Each structure stands twice: as C-alpha cells, then as structure tokens.
Amino acid sequence: MSEAYHPVGPGLGLEENFLSLDDILMSQEKLPCRAESTLPRLAFALGQGAGTGDSIPEGSKLEIPLWLAKGLQDSKRRIISVELPNIFKEAWRTVFSADANVVDLHKMGPYYYGFGSQLLNFDNPENPEIAQTILQTFISRFRRIMDSSQNAYNEDTSALVARLDELERALFRTGQKGLNDFQCWEKGQASQITASSLVQNYGKRKFADTDG
User: Fold this and answer.
1) Number of domains in the chain
2) How far apart are CA 61 and CA 152, in angstroms?
C-alpha cells in the first residue's frame, strides 16, 4: 500500500519549497518589524486594531509572519524594515562562535537554519556575519549529531534530539535509519543495503542540473 504523503525536504536557501511542510511551518515564524509608512486597513488583520478599517501608523512596531514580511518587502518603496530576532544578533553570534553545541536550538527557534537563511532576503548590513554564523554552527554541530545517531541503537533518543532544530532532527533520524538498516543486514534480516534517501535525492538534483 503506497503512502498518502511523501515527505518533501525544505528549500534550505533563500527560497522556500512550498511543497514542504517544514517550509510552510517555518514561514509562519514571527519577525520583529517597523512600519516605515502608514499601512491602511491592516491593523485588524495584524492584531493592532479593533476595526477592519483601522490603519497602522508609520513607526509602529510589529511582529509579523515571515511570509508576510517578504510580501511587504519592496525595493522601490520602503513599506517595512525588518529587525533581527535576538538569536541572530551579535551577542548570540558570539555564543555560537564560542561553542555552538551548548545552545538549545529547538528552544530558540525550531527552524534556525531555514529561518536564518530567509533573513538574507532582507537588506541588512549584518547579513554576511549571519550567513557565516549559520554555516559554522551547522559544521560545529553536525559531527556530534551524527556520532550520537550512530551510538544510540535501540535506545530512547528523546533527550538527545530535544535540543536540535528540525533540520538537525531530520539528519539524526537519517543516521538512525542507516544504523538500523545496517544492523538488520548484518543479522541477515535484509537482502541488501540501499542508499539513503538523502543521497538519492542529491543524485537526482545533480543529474537534473547537469542535464539542464
């Protein structure tokens, strides 16, 4: 019996993949913003007023979903300005550079990597530092995540994954599945070892790029 839904991976870049449930959920994350001009008849929709005809005055502080902030972004007319969430500010970037493994990423934001990548869509002088911190955080935490996934066979892993963001949890599950498949093959419970879905998907994208 075929599955009703085949999971689609996140976009992992400046553009979301709207077939991905992870990206849909990530796009709902709130961004602190400031209205750079009056926003007519939007106060009620954004929880800032009681009537549907109320406007948001210039200079108002807002917290709006990422998808809406991207929609209001206009290179010709400045409608809103986006402020950095705390976890991407300099103070937290210093913490990450000291030891990224001590940070509870899921508590700070379950879509740290995807959300941080989306922030690069907005004009911010700190974008190069943000991109570098995201990359170095992933590199610093990757080996520990995969080592943990390979050394927790048939164990309760809830405590191990509690501090991971959703991308890291997906990597952990992939590592666990690979270990489980190998153990089954070693015990003669599987006919062959197959490539992981991550490797297969990467191969398909690489082939498509070459073909284009």
Assistant:
1) 2
2) 46
